[in-house]
Amino acid sequence: MLLYILGMIGIAAFAITGVISAGRRNMDLFSIVLLGMVASLGGGTIRDVVLRLDAVYWVNDTSYLWVAILSSVFAFFGVRVIENRQQVFHYADSFGLALFTVVATESVLNMGFSPIIAMTMGVTTGVAGGMMRDLLSHRPPLVLGREFYATPAFLGALLVVLLERNIPFHEYNAIYSALLIFILRLFAIHKGLYYPSWLLYKKRES
């Protein structure tokens, strides 16, 4: 039940980021709702297709689809009164990344897949929706930037696996892991948490 609720909250958070991205491109209501749905449902769709499940999760349970649609419509009218939309975008994106990664990792583990597959699907679910959102709204994908993005998702997925192995079925495992991802993203946003310079490729001088 907890994973179900966290998944719904993650969908709402990513739908908001999709609406804010679409608003920067002056799209109409239908296009904005569509982008919100792509952002919020895209990562999980890729996960279910890769794992060859019988049906994509939002086809089996249309509540996910309705949450994506209603969250996008609500955000379309709600973000107009928000002054610092960019900050809301980053917070919602970080929140959605944390929840999607953790919920996907734990769900795939519960399906009986190996930890490495669960972690891979967790990170993929977390970053794929945002990446599609950024590409469709002509933004530089956050996952391809210098600051920590995929790394917090990986560390959160790893923590899920470790917690489930050592204290299985503990009700707060998902919350602990989501907090780790969210806090690391906040540090990246506000404190400039980047990879060490020696890990980055540098342009050669001509």
Automatic annotation (TrEMBL):
Family that this chain belongs to: Belongs to the UPF0126 family.
Protein name listed in UniProt: Trimeric intracellular cation channel family protein
Record field: transmembrane: 6-22, 29-51, 63-81, 143-163, 175-194
Record-level GO cellular component terms: plasma membrane
All residue ranges annotated as the Glycine transporter domain in the record: 5-77, 91-164
Subcellular location field: Cell membrane
Pfam families: Gly_transporter
InterPro entries: Gly_transporter
Topology in membrane: Multi-pass membrane protein
Protein source organism: Marinomonas piezotolerans
